[in-house]
Amino acid sequence: MGPQRQLLHSVIVGAPGSGKRTLALRITRRFQLKTLPSGDLIRDNMRRDTEIGVQAKTMDHGKLIPVDLVIRLLFQKLRNVTQDNWLLCGFSRTLAQVEALDRAHQVHLVMNLNVPFEVIRQLLEARWVHPTSGRVYNLGFNPPKWSHVDDKPEAHNKRMKEKGVLETFFGTETNKIWPYMQAFLQTKVPLRHPKTQLLQEEISL
């Protein structure tokens, strides 16, 4: 029996408009990680009118999808990829989600995107649309609020830093962040075909 293959279970986090989805796509193509965007999974269940999808639809406009619903959906999928490298995009919005993920699946890397607020403001033209719940924020007069200190990004980042798994990438656009992220990931997960453009491999919804 050969040596056990080292797995990479990773999460990418950042403010809306910071480029999470774009960079997640590049990562999965380049490093052949399985990806599971939580927002896509919730919307898929809503389209198919599953039990969880119906619960999400009945939420009052402007409220967060309950943490337990998001966790149930994601963990159902993660049980099928225990022997694969994977990347979660947009999952860890609250400390409760991070703690639940820690208990069920060891996280080896959290990639935090630090994009200047003014850049995000310009990119989104002063408007945030929460991809999961549909909440709309205006950055000028209706900024998003955090319900509890533990739900703030700072609390999440502090916890991940203490665990030794947090890596923060700074930049004003994805094309400037990507070279640093790619170089860092090459030390974490070897390319199977370094000279070939890898195809994205997603968990089918």
TrEMBL record:
Domain Adenylate kinase active site lid: 127-152
Pfam families: ADK, ADK_lid
Superkingdom assignment: Eukaryota
This protein's record includes keyword Nucleus: no
The keyword Transcription regulation is annotated on this UniProt entry: no
GO molecular function: AMP kinase activity; ATP binding
CDD domains hit by this protein: ADK (cd01428)
Cited InterPro entries: Adenylat/UMP-CMP_kin, Adenylate_kinase_lid-dom, ADK_active_lid_dom_sf, P-loop_NTPase
UniProt keywords, alphabetically: Kinase, Nucleotide-binding, Transferase
HAMAP family from the UniProt entry: Adenylate_kinase_Adk
Family: Belongs to the adenylate kinase family.
The name this protein goes by in its record: Adenylate kinase active site lid domain-containing protein
Organism annotation: Muntiacus reevesi (Reeves' muntjac)
